[in-house]
Amino acid sequence: MDRRQREVAPAQWQIAEVIGQKVLHGWLQNRHQTAIPLNINVGRLQQSEAEAIVRFAAVAALAGGEASAQGVVRSWLAGAGTAPDLLATYDAVLQSPPALDKALAAIANADLALVAFVLALVAARDAGPAARAFADYVAAHRSIPTTTVRAALRRHRS
Model pTM? Predict the structure, then answer.
């Protein structure tokens, strides 16, 4: 059957289809926005969780071997509401970082895993391929969903 012989859909069907597409598009956009929060506030975490994040931040900053990553990560932590005493902890941990398995084991839940992945991305911005591979490893190790990884990449990788 060619185009001339097709029935024309009633106007109500066409309107319902357009509205349905708009609703679906809005839902998908909202899903992408809520997969990863716009702002991460380390200051709102429990003390033990914030300490785990700060310790992991030091590991992430050192992962790529780029000295400038330490300052970038520290600036990000300060901008994310990290308390001054935890920033001092970060500076101290840089001198004697924990083993990777211990740092990752302290990241106990999905929300912390996402923050850890974002930190790895922030540390990898100016670092080389090893730092980017480390961020990928963190995402795989903590089983961060692919959609969340993509949202974090769009927002935090330069």
Answer: 0.73
